[in-house]
Amino acid sequence: MDLSHIRNFSIIAHIDHGKSTLADRIIGKCQVVSARDQKDQMLDTMDIERERGITIKSNAITLNYTSKSGKKYIYNLIDTPGHVDFTYEVSRALSSCDGVLLVVDATQGVEAQTIANLYLAMENNLEILPVINKIDMQSADIQRTKDGIEKILGLDSDLAVLTSAKEGTGIDELLEKIIEIIPPPKGEIDKPLKALIFDSFFDQYMGAIIKVRIFDGTVKKNDQIKFFSTGKEYTVGETGIFKIKMEKCDSLNPGDVGYIIAGIKSVTDTKIGDTVTNAVNPAPTALKGFKEVKPMVFSGLYPVYSDDYENLKDALYKLRMNDASLIFEPENSYALGFGFRCGYLGLLHMEIVQERLEREFNLSLVTTSPSVEYHVQLIAGGNNLIIDNPVNLPDPVRIEYILEPYVKASIVTPSEYIGNINSLITECRGIHDHMEYIDPMRVQLSYQLPLAEIVFNFYDKLKSSTRGYASFDYEIIDYRIGKMVKVDILVNSEPVDALSFIVHQDKAYQRGKDIIKKLRDIIPKHQFKIPLQAAVGAKIIARETITALRKDVTSKCYGGDISRKRKLLEKQKAGKKRMKMVGSVELPQEAFLTILKVE
Question: C-alpha distances in angstroms, 388 versus 188, 300, 392, 450?
Fold first, then answer.
């Protein structure tokens, strides 16, 4: 088809602003499926996506649309994830587009992620069409939303299309506006092939299937293709486009969005953002913006039943076939046995991986507390270590300094909660950047704070201190020197490696005290006293004691001399002492979650 009749666009929005519902209405109007087969969240393929109402994997669909003037158009809609953990995937999906629909909820206005997504779209030089959704709601304030679009986003609110995705209002106008506002793709069929990988998935029969946008050249069956980042070459077995299911076609040309099957063994070979070119006649340069995805949050993953170790190993390998950003390596813990150290893009990614492993592979798992990656500079030899597991932190006398990751955080909140947020940020060692009023009622706050503080219960505290009204978004900016120490938790004088954590030295005492207090309530009583201690190096900074289960050994003494009772009590005391030396303490699963759940 003529390039002027193709439109490649994406829908971006803050979580729960109606992105998936709007996509459903657009698909419905273009009559890809019959009314009987139409269902909610058409582009979300996983159960978790449907249940949580979020998009985790990028998806694409090719739609045929006939305009009011009678001209036929092809719309390539690329659906993107909505969460901050998947920012890089979103940026690559956006670079496959020529424009975006920026959805703003008329009841909530501009939120933190709306702003973050706008910046991603602007970085990719995309045409932005604002859409005000949920206009049917009683609490909708269209004028205030328009003011927010003008003032905060800097967009022309007169261009905004008013819609109700739920009711189907304004969808016809939106489809016409896409032709008018979003530019057609550019590209030349005679140039060497240049295609961008914006996602991939694994099929057990066909291997890794890559989703691509073609910028220049053409690709068809039996072509030799090459990946720029790895230099690996493959022979194309099939090309096609996405309807609701994959639909085979003879070739993909400039402006097309589709898939390539080329017998690729693993999704780890198909890096998101990589450029595909022709191996015989390669393009001189790759498309801009590619980078390796790096995990930001790390935690241990162990089977509750040690017999499940091999099953967990298989499950992780299978899951990684569809999620190249998940990394893992074997790990052995004194307390938990054999397991894996896993790296995730963020806390949501960590939750999703654990939930999928438990659901899809029927496993019971224990996750240790998440930690971030620290850069440790040693005194002797000047080596720089990268530590993501507290157990591996060297002795403090060998460390010159520790660098911790910092993020730039953006919080949009009603102005009445500014005081609560500022005190929370101060508690989390944050630095205030600037503040800007979106409208008389709401304000955008910008801070710099350590990623380690966000990993530890920050989101829950933010929601409770703003009654759930604040929205939050962040991005990694750099590494800075921090006074970090490792806190060991000792149970019955034995350090439990899975409970140790790295924390700022000013918070070590309070965090250690809170954790052993929680452990005191969770660990069941034994026949002997159990001391619980928090230690930094050789120094004990906090202590609690679980009292022994006590049997009344003097109950059979009726009267008589007091020395008889004392003798029995001394005998019991000696027995308890001997039992403590040989007895072992069993830790329940909840003990390993205490570090996450400390108030």
Answer: 46, 10, 8, 15
How many C-beta neighbours within 10 Å does residue 395 have? Answer: 9
Backbone angles phi, psi at 201, to 5 degrees: -150, 165
pLDDT, one tens digit per residue, over 9-24 is 888 887 777 777 888 8
pLDDT above 50: residue 514 = yes
Element (H, E) at 64: strand 59-66
Interatomic CA distance for residues 420 and 422, integer angstroms: 6
Using left for φ > 0, alpha for ψ between -120 and 50, and beta otherwise, residue 213 falls in beta
Q: Give the per-residue pLDDT at 377.
A: 86
Distance CA 454, CA 105 (A): 26
Q: Is 108 helix (H, G, I), strand (E, B) or coil?
A: coil
**Beta carbons of 73 and 179 less than 8 angstroms apart:** yes
Helices first, then strands: H and E counts in the chain: 14, 31
Q: What is the rounded CA–CA span in Å between residue 429 and residue 415?
A: 22
| 107 and 137 Cβ atoms separated by less than 8 Å | yes
Write down the pTM of the prediction. Answer: 0.71
SS3 48: helix
CA-based angle 408:411:417, to the nearest 5? 135
Q: What is the pLDDT of residues 405-426, one digit of tens each?
A: 898 888 888 888 888 888 988 8
- Going along the chain from its start, the domains and CATH numbers come out as 3-181 (3.40.50.300), 194-278 (2.40.30.10), 299-365 (3.30.70.870), 374-482 (3.30.70.240), 486-597 (3.30.70.2570)
Q: Which residue has the tokens 């909610």?
A: 40
Mean of per-residue pLDDT scores for the chain: 81
Distance CA 254, CA 185 (A): 8
DSSP strands (E only) in 178-296: 194-203, 207-216, 219-220, 224-227, 233-235, 238-242, 246-249, 251-252, 257-264, 275-278
Confidence of residue 366 (pLDDT cuts 50, 70, 90): confident
- In the three-class reduction of DSSP (H, G, I as helix; E, B as strand; rest coil), residue 236 is classed as coil
Apex CA 272: angle with CA 271 and CA 278, to 5°?
70
Per-residue pLDDT tens over the stretch 87-124: 677 777 888 888 888 888 888 887 777 777 787 788 88
Looking at 14-28, 210-224, 507-521, which range is the least confident one?
A: 14-28
| Per-residue pLDDT reduced to its tens digit, 183-197 | 888 888 888 888 888
CA–CA separation, 484 and 390 (whole Å): 11
Question: What is residue 165's three-state secondary structure?
Answer: coil
Whether the Cβ atoms of residue 281 and residue 190 lie closer than 8 Å to each other:
no
User: What span, in angstroms and rounded, lies between the C-alpha atoms of 575 and 542?
Assistant: 28
In this structure, is the dihedral angle defined by the CA atoms of residues 7, 8, 14 and 16, taken in order, positive or negative? positive
Using CA atoms, how far residue 238 sits from 19, 188, 235, 282, 585, in Å, is 31, 22, 9, 20, 59
- From the centroid of its chain, how far is CA 428? 21
Q: At what angle do helices 171-181 and 19-29 cross, to 10 degrees?
A: 90
